[in-house]
Amino acid sequence: MNRVYEFCKRKDIEISVKRYGIDALGAMAQGLFCSLLIGTIINTLGAQFHISWLTATAATVAGIDYTVGGLATAMSGPAMAVAIGYALHCPPLVLFSLITVGFASNALGGAGGPLAVLFVAIIASEAGKAVSRETKVDILVTPLVTIGIGAVLSAWWAPALGSAAMKVGSVIMWATELQPFWMGMLVSALVGIALTLPISSAAICAALGLTGLAGGAALAGCCAQMVGFAVMSFHENGFSGLISQGIGTSMLQMGNIVKNPRIWIAPIAASLITGPISTCLFHLQMNGAAVSSGMGTCGLVGQIGVYTGWMNDIAAGLKSSVTGMDWLGLILISFVLPAVLCPLINHFLVKIGWVKPGDMKLD
User: Fold this and answer.
1) Which residues contact 28 (CB under 8 A, 6 or more apart)?
2) Confidence class of residue 273 from pLDDT cuts 50, 70 and 90?
3) 199: pLDDT confidence band, cut at 50, 70 and 90?
4) Which phi and psi angles does 66 have, rounded to 5°?
5) What is the CA radius of gyration of the chain?
6) How do residues 20-75 score in pLDDT, each as one tens digit?
7) How many whole angstroms separate alpha carbon 77 and alpha carbon 75?
8) Cα 73 from Cα 8, distance rounded (Å)
9) Angstrom distance (rounded) from CA 304 to CA 288
């Protein structure tokens, strides 16, 4: 047993919740951002501003035409896998081999491909690390093991994992359509909490394919956390804190939450309010990329995702135009309500002594 422990330590193979559930999952979201999400944004910009070189065919592969954004989107599987491998500290030969693994697992996983990529890439990465530099023909052995295990697991697991992820996502979306008030509260609060925790809400939404009303509720919860913390800590952190939390991440407050969990009450309470307002009053839907549902106001990606969904619906004939009510709902849910509700709720918490000045100060 000691020999196994020493081997894993030497190979930097660490089987832990942090390594796989935080580091790998967070990196996967970054891979998605740099491929699927950026590709979607490029396509939207090209279509809305009539930029010909963004809407023109950049390449034709196997009879399929791709725009610049389409090429970026098509590489989401390899991007996720390489990002995961980077987070797991894979040596170069393993890292480069994961390009094939990511493509296979994402393609075979279908709409639930991101979850398949997460599981398959982690195992292929660790297997590749285990054999890396152990033989004199490392240039052959390491890629063969990494790609071989990744390809076999992709064929064996990816379809089932992808299907399971989509079924879970479909159940959540179905339940939100059926019970928009209660599910709006639940989805908003849980995804918002995930955004502030050191895990990736974006990756979770992507893995589950969370769109529609449920995606809108998820967006509401994320915005409540980001804008809420940014505004109610403004007197302690100033404009730098407003920007870093408001369009960066509320995860910056995690250290302060550990010290005083009560500072988290206001953003969570706000998400419980804005979630059902989003689903029941404004019927706000995220019909863009599912990963956008878990991004909140980070780089305004969530709002761009909603807008992209509007354009997709108009192109598909499902929506005639973007109305003033659409814009009002997006602005209120994303910015105004969190900025008003969180300070008000937190003011009450300060009055009763649960939250004190300096509790939300960022280092």
Assistant:
1) 80, 83, 84, 114, 117, 118, 121, 200, 203
2) very high
3) confident
4) -125, 135
5) 22
6) 988 998 898 889 888 888 888 888 888 878 899 998 999 998 888 999 999 998 99
7) 6
8) 35
9) 8
Reply yes or no on whether the pLDDT at 363 is more than 90: no
CB neighbour burial string for 187-212, b if at least 16 within 10 angstroms, e if fewer: bbbbbbbbbbeebbbbbbbbbbbbbb
Interatomic CA distance for residues 80 and 73, integer angstroms: 11
pLDDT tens digit string along 218-263?
999 999 999 999 999 999 999 998 998 998 889 889 889 999 999 9
How far apart CA 288 and CA 39 sit, in angstroms, is 12
Give the residue-averaged pLDDT of 131-154.
96
| Helix (H), strand (E), coil (C) string for the chain | CHHHHHHHHHCCCCCCHHHHHHHHHHHHHHHHHHHHHHHHHHHHHHHHCCCHHHHCCCEEECCEEECHHHHHHHCHHHHHHHHHHHHCCCCHHHHHHHHHHHHHHHHHHHHHHHHHHHHHHHHHHHHHHHHCCCCCCHHHHHHHHHHHHHHHHHHHHHHHHHHHHHHHHHHHHHHHHHCHHHHHHHHHHHHHHHHHCCCCHHHHHHHHCCCHHHHHHHHHHHHHHHHHHHHHCHHHHHHHHHHHHHCCCHHHHHHHHHHCHHHHHHHHHHHHHHHHHHHHHCCCCECCCHHHHHCCCHHHHHHHHHHHHHHHHHHCCCCCCCCHHHHHHHHHHHHHHHHHHHHHHHHHHHHCCCCCCCCCCCC
Tokens of 342: 């969180």
The token pair at 89 is 């500290």
Q: Which two tokens stand for residue 201?
A: 């809400």
- Give the start-to-end residue ranges of the domains of the chain: 2-165, 179-351
| Arithmetic mean of pLDDT, 95-120 | 93
Angle at 16 between CA 10 and CA 20, to 5 degrees: 100
Determine the Cα–Cα distance for residues 133 and 175; give it in Å rounded to an integer. Answer: 50
Task: State the average pLDDT over residues 162-177.
Answer: 91
Please state, in angstroms and rounded to a whole number, the distance separating the CA atoms of residues 118 and 32: 12
pLDDT at 361 over 90: yes
